[in-house]
Design a protein that fits this description.
- GO terms for molecular function: DNA-binding transcription factor activity; transcription cis-regulatory region binding.
- This is TetR/AcrR family transcriptional regulator.
- Keywords: DNA-binding.
- By secondary structure, this protein is mainly α.
- The chain folds into 2 domains: about 50 residues, Orthogonal Bundle (Arc Repressor Mutant, subunit A); about 130 residues, Tetracycline Repressor, domain 2 (Orthogonal Bundle).
- The protein has 11 helices and no strands.
Length: about 200
């Protein structure tokens, strides 16, 4: 039976087109991981993906759009993990455990694509906060903070917890200061513990 189109939904992607898309994005991610965003080459991506370079251009248009597609592809997987995936990142763990797992996972996600995210956040200056992903992260963290500490200003604390995860700061810490990701995660743990400590807790 042929699947009928659903109003408001884009047309279903052909199986071969979907396979090509996945192969191209995987190849582009590999090139960026090896050479950085500036080293992204449409010819090299096509060669690794086993498709013609024309296919890459028809599908993504240019290097910039291909780079952002790589970011978006990973972003969808990350969002699915913390919204619907297994605990502790997904539902089923305590709010404190989920909060810690989210900060760690976002540190990994930002580190993996820091160069591309810096490009995306650079113009305009408030681009990071206009992006839909930031709004979702903020909403998720504010919910968890409110569950851990109901009397706190959850909206402000969510921003405070996201501030150290800006891509340009992560890139500076990793490349200029030589910090391993585990050190960044340990710092996030310390920050979260301090922000979420209730007034009744001993200092």
């Amino acid at each position: 039976m042929r699947e009928l189109p659903v109003a408001g939904r884009p047309p279903a992607e052909r199986a071969d087109a979907a396979r090509n898309r996945r192969r191209i994005l995987a190849a582009a991610a590999a090139v960026i991981a090896e050479r950085g965003a500036d080293g992204l080459s449409m010819d090299e991506v096509a060669r690794r993906a086993g498709v013609g370079v024309g296919t890459v251009y028809r599908r993504f248009g240019d290097r910039a759009r291909l780079a952002y597609a790589v970011v978006d592809d990973r972003e969808r997987g990350f969002q699915a993990a913390f919204l619907h995936g297994p605990p502790p990142l997904g539902p089923g763990a305590s709010p404190s455990e989920r909060l810690r797992a989210f900060l760690h996972a976002l540190a990994d996600r930002t580190d993996a694509q820091a160069e591309l995210l810096v490009m995306a956040e650079a113009d305009p200056p408030d681009a990071r906060f206009r992006d839909g992903s930031y709004g979702l992260y903020h909403l998720h963290l504010a919910m968890l903070v409110g569950q851990v500490r109901p009397a706190a200003d959850a909206a402000y604390l969510a921003d405070a917890l996201l501030a150290p995860l800006a891509a340009n700061l992560i890139l500076h810490q990793r490349r200029t200061r030589g910090m391993p990701v585990e050190r960044i995660k340990a710092g996030l743990d310390t920050l979260a513990e301090g922000l979420l400590r209730t007034p009744a807790d001993p200092d």
